[in-house]
């Protein structure tokens, strides 16, 4: 049963990007969560009292193994998850140092060009964040 009166679950994440080590082209990091068998941007629930941006950067590091330099804020995404409202705040973030190690929550990551990332994302609501990154950060469509 859905209860719209419940306060939304607060979460945060990033559209993590880098320039390809091979050719310098823009790549976006997607995470695969075996529990849901989906591809998404790194994100997660905020800890009690945690600021959204701090939580977004923590989740990126936990899920991808990469430190991230935050950039432009992106849209908040609102939806229902397990019958509860959820609000996820996103930022564009450039990948820094690090490396991926599979874990129980995320078993794979992919670095893909924007068009491929957009089509690989499971949820349509996540695809619009790729478009927003391109417009807000790279000023292209």
Fold and architecture overview:
By secondary structure, the chain is an alpha+beta fold. It has one domain (14-136): Nucleoside Triphosphate Pyrophosphohydrolase. It is built from three helices and seven strands, in the order E-E-E-E-H-E-E-E-H-H. The protein has helices spanning 52-64, 114-120, 124-136; strands spanning 9-19, 26-33, 38-40, 43-45, 66-81, 84-98, 108-112. Strands 1, 2, 3, 4, 5, 6 and 7 form a seven-stranded mixed sheet that branches. A hairpin with a 2-residue loop joins strand 5 (66-81) and strand 6. Helix 2 packs antiparallel against helix 3 (124-136). The longest helix is centred in the middle third of the chain and has 13 residues, at 52-64. The protein is globular.
Unreliably modeled segments: none
CATH superfamily: Nucleoside Triphosphate Pyrophosphohydrolase
Overall tally of domains: 1
Structure class: alpha+beta
How would you sum up the major sheet? Answer: 7 strands, mixed
Q: Which second-level CATH architecture applies?
A: Alpha-Beta Complex
Please report the distance between the alpha carbons of the first and last residues. 40 Å
Give a brief rundown of this model.
The chain has 141 residues and is an alpha+beta fold. The protein is built from 3 helices and 7 strands, in the order ββββαβββαα.
Task: Jot down its keywords.
141 residues, alpha+beta, Nucleoside Triphosphate Pyrophosphohydrolase, seven-stranded mixed β-sheet, 3 helices
Secondary-structure map with pairings?
Elements: E1 9-19, E2 26-33, E3 38-40, E4 43-45, H1 52-64, E5 66-81, E6 84-98, E7 108-112, H2 114-120, H3 124-136
Parallel strand pairs: 1-6
Antiparallel strand pairs: 1-2, 1-4, 2-3, 2-7, 5-6
């Amino acid at each position: 049963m859905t209860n719209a009166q419940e306060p939304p679950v607060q979460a945060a994440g990033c559209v993590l990007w880098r320039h390809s080590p091979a050719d310098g082209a823009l790549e976006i990091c997607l995470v695969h969560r075996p529990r849901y068998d989906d591809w998404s941007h790194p994100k997660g629930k905020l800890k009690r009292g945690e600021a959204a941006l701090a939580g977004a950067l923590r989740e990126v590091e936990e899920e991808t193994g990469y430190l991230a330099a935050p950039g432009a804020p992106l849209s908040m995404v609102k939806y229902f998850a397990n019958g509860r409202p959820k609000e996820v705040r996103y930022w564009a973030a450039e990948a820094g140092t690090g490396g991926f190690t599979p874990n129980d929550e995320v078993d794979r990551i992919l670095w893909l060009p924007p068009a491929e990332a957009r089509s690989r994302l499971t949820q349509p609501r996540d695809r619009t964040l790729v478009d927003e990154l391109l417009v807000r950060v790279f000023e292209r469509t």
